[in-house]
Specification:
Response regulator transcription factor; WalR-like; 2 domains; Rossmann fold; 5 strands; alpha/beta; about 10% strand; transcription regulation; 5-stranded parallel beta sheet; NreC/VraR/RcsB-like_REC; Arc Repressor Mutant, subunit A
């Protein structure tokens, strides 16, 4: 059994098709700095293996028997499970359809984005590294295309948003527009480290796990 490299990104594969799962395993293991640590054939097994193996990134099929990827994602990001982890886990949903309501729901539950199953090996590896860094694998415009805001009428911003400083709100809206830290820094005439501090404050104050959830927050409260 290979010895863990602390610099590796540990990946869990979840798909009910053995052939697809093994094909993705070969692709991921061939990428520098990535290693598959396990595989699951349904969502129930995926939740168990996330608890046991503590992967960094989960590639989650959206349609599976027993428990689908939406419910598995919801359980993976249940507050008690999140609180018990020493490091965050990120979920990328794999789907056959570009505009998939289930993928949108999984993102609401905490997934960091979605990929089509026919994506290229290079794009798959890049997506794994991207979400491991706390970023999304789809742009805010793509989130809008998933009709995130049609699930319910927007509600007024909560007190936590209203309590943000003017600078934090400026950074919030820049994040929602999909700007990187470097682009935000140039826009607000600040250093990248300052922007990173503001983003961290936003995640903490708005109880968001990552930048994707900030976009979802914006849609939920009519701020997008």
């Amino acid at each position: 059994m290979p010895v863990d490299d602390p610099g590796e990104i540990r990946v869990l594969l979840v798909d009910d098709q053995d052939l697809f799962r093994e094909g993705v395993r070969v692709i991921v293991d061939a990428q520098p700095g990535l290693r598959v640590v396990g595989g699951a054939a349904d969502g129930r097994e995926a939740v168990r293996l996330v608890d046991e193996l503590a992967p960094d990134v989960v590639l989650m099929d959206i349609r599976m028997p027993e428990m689908d990827g939406v419910e598995a994602t919801r359980q993976i990001f249940a507050p008690q499970r999140v609180a018990a982890r020493s490091a965050p886990v990120r979920v990328i949903v794999l789907t056959t359809f570009n505009l998939d309501d289930r993928a949108a729901t999984a993102i609401r539950h905490g997934a960091s984005g979605f990929l089509l199953k026919h994506t290229t090996p290079a794009m798959l590896a890049d997506a794994i590294r991207t979400v491991h860094g706390g970023n999304a694998v789809l742009a805010p415009t793509d989130l809008s295309a998933l009709f995130l805001d049609r699930f319910a009428e927007p509600t007024p911003p909560p007190p936590a948003y209203l309590a943000l400083t003017d600078k934090e709100r400026e950074v919030f809206h820049a994040v929602v527009r999909g700007l990187s830290n470097a682009e935000i820094a140039a826009e607000i005439f600040a250093s990248e480290s300052t922007v990173k501090t503001h983003v961290g404050a936003l995640l903490r104050k708005l109880a968001a796990r990552d930048r994707v959830q900030l976009v979802v927050f914006a849609h939920d409260h009519g701020l997008a």
